[in-house]
């Protein structure tokens, strides 16, 4: 039996909003450690990895590991039926062909119950090497979202370059060009507004903005986003997932293959 | 001219 209860059900709604347009079908791997998912987009250019730790749930029971394959747009449709303040409970029997979602409104006697069909998916699990990156940037997530949205007006790709204490996002297209330069901020008065850059070596790499704009759908999950870059490897865009108390619940990591010179 | 790489060019199946 698998059962996971989340008082702040909105977190699950936000996670689905952040992945459903990138990945159609995926499997949640549920173990005593928590729930995780790894899936590539249909064109195999990007990869998304989600982790929700067991101790972040208000109740978590997983007697034996289960794989819950599902259509994410179906799951997202069902989650839209839950209110933002609802408690969400996921339940799956050991050998069932569906998952049950129970939504409970706060301080009300209303509960609703939905079922989503499970699917057997051939999932390929990719091994992600755990290597240090040349550049790590932490910045406000809304700023990253804004930059990606603005530069997509100019071109299809953004060139990210980092040198000294600044990171530069540049795009070119038929209409002209655009550049956004961000410098490391000095004060830590408001940590969520800060920009911090740690650089081992200068870097310049290009990425498709279409995917970065998909990743930015995770913005409501976290006030800060972390970008990690190294020469000739995929970019990592990470949003940590925290609950209202600020406790660490897990993460969404997106990996994006670069565009390289032919 | 730049070409789009795939994620499987970097990460291998386990």
Jot down its keywords.
heterodimer; A: 262 residues; mainly beta; nine-stranded antiparallel sheet; five-stranded antiparallel sheet; 4 helices; 20 strands; 14% helix; 47% strand; B: 14 residues; 2 strands; 36% strand
Q: How would you describe this structure to a colleague?
A:
The complex is a heterodimer of chains A (262) and B (14). Chain A is built from four helices and 20 strands. Chain A is mostly beta strands. Chain B is mainly β. Chain B has strands at residues 2-4, 12-13. Classes of the chains: A mainly beta (262), B mainly beta (14). The interface between A and B is medium-sized, with 25 and 14 residues.
Question: How would you concisely characterize the structure shown here?
Answer:
The complex is a heterodimer of chains A (262) and B (14). With 262 residues, chain A is mainly β.
Major beta-sheet overview of chain B: none
Helix content range of chain A = 10-25%
Shape of chain A: globular
Taking all residues together, what is the mean pLDDT of chain B?
A: 92
What's the order of the H and E elements of chain A? Answer: EHEEEEEHEEEEEHEEEEEHEEEE
Approximately what portion of the residues of chain B adopt beta-strand conformation? 35-45%
Poorly predicted regions of chain A are: none
Q: State the total count of DSSP E strands of chain B.
A: 2
Order of helices and strands of chain B: EE
Low-confidence stretches of chain B: none
Q: Please give the number of β-strands of chain A.
A: 20
Shape category of chain B: rod-shaped
User: Quaternary arrangement of the chains shown?
Assistant: heterodimer
Largest sheet of chain A: 9 strands, antiparallel
Coarse structural class of chain A: mainly beta
Biggest β-sheet: strands ordered side by side in the sheet of chain A: 6-2-3-4-19-18-17-11-15
Question: How much beta of chain A, percentage-wise?
Answer: over 45%
């Amino acid at each position: 039996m698998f059962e996971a209860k989340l008082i702040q059900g909105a977190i699950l709604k936000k996670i689905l909003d952040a992945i459903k347009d990138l990945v159609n079908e995926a499997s949640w791997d549920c173990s005593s450690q928590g729930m995780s998912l790894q899936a590539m987009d249909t064109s195999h250019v990007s990869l998304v990895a989600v982790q929700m730790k067991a101790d972040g749930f208000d109740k978590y029971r997983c007697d034996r590991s289960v794989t819950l394959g599902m259509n994410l747009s179906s799951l997202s449709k069902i989650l839209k039926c839950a209110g933002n303040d609802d408690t969400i409970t996921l339940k799956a029997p050991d050998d069932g062909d569906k998952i049950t979602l129970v939504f409970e409104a706060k301080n009300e006697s209303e509960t609703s119950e939905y079922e989503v069909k499970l699917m057997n998916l051939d999932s390929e699990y990719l091994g992600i090497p755990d290597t240090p990156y040349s550049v790590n940037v932490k910045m406000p997530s809304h700023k990253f979202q804004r930059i990606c949205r603005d530069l997509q007006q100019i071109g299809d790709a953004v060139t990210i370059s980092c040198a000294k204490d600044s990171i530069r996002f540049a795009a070119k297209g038929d209409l002209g060009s655009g550049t956004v330069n961000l410098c490391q901020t000095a004060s830590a008065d408001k940590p969520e507004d800060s920009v911090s850059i740690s650089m081992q070596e200068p870097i310049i790499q290009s990425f498709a903005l279409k995917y970065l704009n998909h990743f930015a759908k995770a913005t409501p999950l976290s006030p800060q986003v972390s970008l990690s870059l190294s020469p000739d490897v995929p970019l990592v865009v990470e949003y940590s997932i925290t609950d209202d108390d600020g406790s660490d619940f897990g993460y969404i990591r997106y990996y994006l293959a670069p565009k390289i010179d032919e | 001219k730049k070409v789009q790489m795939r994620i499987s060019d970097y990460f291998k199946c386990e």
